[in-house]
Amino acid sequence: MHRFANPARFLRLSAVLLPWFAWATALLTAIGLYYALFASPADYQQGETVRIMYVHVPAAWMGLFVYTNMAIASAVALIWKHPLADVAAKASAPIGAAFTFLCLVTGALWGKPMWGTWWAWDARLTSMLILLFLYLGHMALVNAFDDPTRGAKAAAILALAGFINVPVIKWSVDWWNTLHQPASVTRVGLPAIDPSMLVPLLLMAVAFTTYFGTVLLLRIRSEIAAQKLRNIRMAQVRSAGHARSAA
Amino acid sequence: MRFTEIVRRDLRLALRQGSDSIMVVTFFVLTVVLFPFGIGPEANILERVAAGILMVTALLASMLSLDRLFQADYEDGSLELLALTPTPLEVVVTAKIVAHWLTTGLPLLIASPLLAVLLHMEPAGFATLLAAMALGTPTLSLIGAIGAALVLGARRGGVLLSLLILPLYIPVLIFAVGAIDTAIQGFDPQPQLLILAGILLAALPLCPWAGAAALRQALE
Predict the structure, then answer these.
(1) Cβ distance of B168 and A162 shorter than 8 Å
(2) Could you write out the DSSP letters of every residue in B98-157?
(3) Chain A residue closest to B220 (CA)?
(4) What is this structure's pTM?
(5) How far apart are CA A109 and CA A80, in angstroms?
(6) Count of A–B CB contacts within 8 Å?
(7) How many domains does chain A have?
(8) Contact check, Cβ <8 Å, A141/B156
(9) Is residue A11 part of a domain?
(10) Tens digit of pLDDT at every position of chain B (220 positions)
């Protein structure tokens, strides 16, 4: 793991990986959307609105996946003081917040015709909303300090404390028997969903994951570049100060 | 310093500075009193929402007092001295949380039945209200300590603190109000109270640990 702690090595490696992730995202999104919007059947009960699911479910998975990622990166940063883990956690938060927001919005759009309401105070929906607030709190805390390392450490502790919410979301539909339907893919035994709908769903899920990889790599790279710029500017100010005091 | 010494020191400071505990209770009472003006004085409506109003307001009152948990000690440097003592920082944090609960949670607990009467809550809910407050407010102080330690030295710490802490407070709110409503409807509130107790027992070792980690990075 410490092999990748070197930012220069990370920059070289990510430059190689980035185009692969980007092309995989473009390709999988195109195929996934074609299957989701045209080549899959409409549901016998939900009609065409079932197609919202192909965005909604992967977005929800990603909301949880990104938070888990962020918590692991935070733990690595706190325990081994890995210099890139802090950057990775910081870069993940806005992406995860966007996925969670997308999940909530598409859920509302699906809920209006299906449940007859935009929003219900159901356990799954509420815990997802809490997840969004945890992301927003993380983003606010990272930027709340004059010293960026201080913000990164505080945010890492917050990310770990908030991780308690992830299993609650995952099993909320089993613990509380409320409006949101229980899991039909990630359950013991065969998925309770027809292959004609499962295939586009999984395609979209993989596309979302590679999209996350692409944006994460880009954001980490730009964060490293921003740190370099900051250091250069500090050095310039310092040398200008020396020159003035010498004159 | 030992555990009891820190608790005694914090209690003495709170008593000598006087107004803090009274302000928390005053905030609680005033905010609860706002609701009959806001939603109308009909007894049946107030009766229905009484449990929720009491718990939400108690939660906000408890949150507003969090900044004094570490902030004053951080500013005058005594927090660094406490961190240097041989006592583990986790014990120091636990002691400060206990003192915080004694000066905020306990007064709120005592004031809540009176406010429940003002809001026309069914008498069947009173015992459960006290039990839910007794199990819930320590958890609020425990979770709040993590947030209070994290925002030390941050810009606009107060607003930030509420953004960090309120999402984590929601489970306590759900089960406390659920217990009271169950009792009012004539059922046994024991399951919800046991979950509240479970949350408290999980928070009791974990929160001081996370709070101490947060303090360490604040004092670096």
Answers:
(1) yes
(2) HHHIIIIIHHHHHHHHHHHHHTT--GGGHHHHHHHHHHHHHHHHHHHHHHHHHTTT-TTH
(3) A150
(4) 0.86
(5) 43
(6) 61
(7) 1
(8) no
(9) no
(10) 688 998 999 888 888 876 777 888 999 999 999 998 988 888 888 888 899 999 999 999 999 888 888 888 888 888 898 888 888 999 999 999 999 999 999 999 999 999 999 888 888 889 999 999 999 999 999 999 999 999 988 887 778 898 889 888 988 998 999 999 999 888 899 999 999 999 999 999 999 999 999 999 888 7
Q: Does A42 map to a domain?
A: yes
Which pLDDT score, from 0 to 100, does residue B28 have? 93
Residues of chain A with pLDDT under 70: 1-4, 173-179, 183-192, 246-247
Give pLDDT, residue B65: 87
Percent helix, strand, coil in chain B (nearest 5)?
85, 0, 15
| Domain CATH number, residue A72 | 1.20.120
Residue of chain A with shortest Cα separation from B169: A130
Residue positions counted in chain B: 220
Sign of CA dihedral A185, A191, A193, A196: positive
* A77-107 confidence digits (pLDDT tens): 988 888 888 899 999 999 999 999 999 999 8
- In order of A79, A146, A154, A192, the CA distances from B150 in angstroms are 17, 14, 6, 44
CA distance B192 to chain A (A): 13
**Cβ of A130 and B170 within 8 Å?**
yes
Chain A interface test: which of B89, B163, B172, B219 (most A C-beta within 10 Å): B163
CB contact under 8 A, A144 and B155: yes
Q: Does residue A96 belong to any structural domain of this protein? A: yes
- CA B199-B202-B206 angle, 5° bins: 130
pLDDT digits (tens, 9 = 90+) for B66-85: 888 888 888 888 889 888 88
Break chain A down into helix, strand, coil percent, rounded to 5.
80, 0, 20
Decide if the complex's ipTM is over 0.95: no
Q: Strand, coil or helix: what is A121?
A: coil
Nearest CA in chain A to B170: A130
Give the nearest partner residue to B146 out of A126, A153, A161, using CB atoms: A161
Closest residue on chain B to A160 (Cα): B210
Buried b (16+ CB within 10 A) or exposed e, B27-46: bbbebbeebbeeeeeeeeeb
Q: Is the Cα dihedral A105, A110, A113, A118 positive or negative?
A: negative
Cβ(A216)–Cβ(A91) under 8 Å?
yes
> A78: domain range?
19-179+194-215
User: Per the domain annotation, does A223 fall within a domain?
Assistant: no
